[in-house]
Every structure is written in structure tokens, then in C-alpha cells.
Amino acid sequence: MPEHTSEQHSAGLSENMREDTRALMRGLDVLSGPFPDFDPDTAPDHPAQLFVAWFMNAVDTKVVEPHAMTLSTVTPDGRPEARVLILKSVDAAGWRFAISKASSKGREIAQNPHVALTFHWREVGRQVRISGVACEESAADGSADFLARSRGSREMALLLRQSQVLEEPQQIDRELEAVRRKLAEDPDLVPPEWTSYVVKADKVEFWQADGGRRHTRVLYTRADETAAWSRCRLWP
Ligand SMILES: Cc1cc2nc3c(=O)[nH]c(=O)nc-3n(C[C@H](O)[C@H](O)[C@H](O)COP(=O)(O)O)c2cc1C
Q1: Fewer CB in a 10 Å sphere around the end CB: N or C, the chain?
Q2: Does domain 34-149+192-234 have CATH number 2.30.110.10?
Q3: Interval 105-159: pLDDT, tens
Q4: At what angle do helices 151-158 and 170-185 cross, to 10 degrees?
Q5: Which atom of ligand 1 is nearest to the CA of 68?
Q6: Left if phi > 0, otherwise alpha if psi is -120 to 50, otherwise beta: which for 24?
Q7: Element (H, E) at 181
Q8: Contact 198/95 with Cβ under 8 angstroms?
Q9: Entry pTM
Q10: Domain parsing of the chain, residue ranges
């Protein structure tokens, strides 16, 4: 990629960009509803139950990609990192996702397992924020997840190259060819790095938008994974 100085970059930007973008962004609608009802007094004792109820509602109301979530991790030097991933399942034990341990996020979790998951279901004005510890599940759980993935996803994951610098795009085709040969010999090949994690939460917040900005927030907390959950409401 060609190198540019910061002056060259700035010269390429419109002087009015800040004003233009501000005007554009101010003119966009946000939290305009209509939104579903949420009565915090009827919230269940366990946040996973409420999560599943909201998730089912998101599926029923055709929220786009309701299982897409932002996974936030922390680097060894204390910088937050965040990216979108797909949620695989949830139950009383926690929220599950599967990734390669060799990826940046996998290495970050190995150093510091504290993570956050954030869901935004725009069409129903809902956000769920989950905070806890990502725990590795068994190798069998990791393999089961991997073998259930699409062929393309497995091929790409077997390269073990995610987030490395790509010097030239043709490299992908060359390396994929080698992986396809390996998969032809062993269709059930699973990279040992592929890992399923369950996020054992100690904090889960449910946020329901209100068109008049009187949003409803319910926070579940517990001291540790053996303790019972307690919940309270938060100011909007
Ligand atoms: C909707 C959506 C779904 C994604 N699903 C996955 C996924 O299941 N697994 C994955 O490794 N990356 C997924 N990504 C890409 C990640 O956001 C990220 O770019 C990638 O995992 C590299 O992250 P890292 O460099 O922090 O390890 C998805 C991105 C989007 C927008």
C-alpha cells in the first residue's frame, strides 16, 4: 500500500466534511419506534431466560442477523478491541461463540478472559450488554462447532491466517488449494486451534428504548457463577 503523510491525507478531505457529516447525522432518525412493551416487574430470575425471550421476539419480528454481536476483549497493554461475531447458543451456563485460538481475539482471551458481548436489535429498540469471563469448552465442543460450519468457512479457518497481513490477494487462492487437497483426504479435518467458549456472565443489562426517551433498563448482577442473580432498574 502507498504511504501518505498526514498532510496529504488531510488535503484529500473536504474542509466542510465535519459540518456536512454533522448535518447529515443530525437529520437521521433514531429510536423512533414503535417498540414492543417490556414490563421489568415480569422479568424472570435468570438473565438467560429474558435473553432467550428477547431473542425469540427478535427472530419473530424479523430483526436482521439477531445472532450477530460485538465481542469486546482487552489487549495485554489494556487497550479494548471489539469486533462482530455470531452467537452460537445460550443456556443457564452462558453465551457461546467459537473462534480460532490463533486469532487476535483468541490470543487476547488467553491473556485476559474478561470479555463483553453487545447485541443491538435496532428494529425493536433493544440492546443487551453482557459482561463476564470467556471459558474454553471441550475439544469435542470445538470440533462439533467446526464440522457444522459451511465448507467455505472451514476452508478459510483451516488457513489459520486470520488478521495476518495479506501481501497479495493471490496468496489466498494458492493456500486454499492446499487446504482443499487436505480436506479431500480428510473431510472431517478440524484445526486444533478451533475452540468453543462459553461466556459465564456476572453482569447482564437489558435496555428497551422508549420514543419519549424514558428508556427501561434492567441490570442483573451476581457475585460469582455460583451465586444467585439479583436485579435492579437503572435510570435511563
Ligand atoms: C456479521 C458478521 C459476522 C461475523 N462472524 C464472524 C465469525 O463467526 N467468526 C469470525 O472469526 N469472524 C467473524 N466476523 C469477522 C470479525 O468481526 C473479525 O473481523 C474477525 O474475526 C477478525 O477479528 P480479530 O482480528 O479481532 O481476531 C464477522 C463479521 C461480521 C460483520
Answers
A1: N
A2: yes
A3: 999 999 999 999 999 999 999 999 999 999 999 999 999 999 999 999 999 999 9
A4: 110
A5: 1
A6: alpha
A7: helix 170-185
A8: yes
A9: 0.93
A10: 34-149+192-234
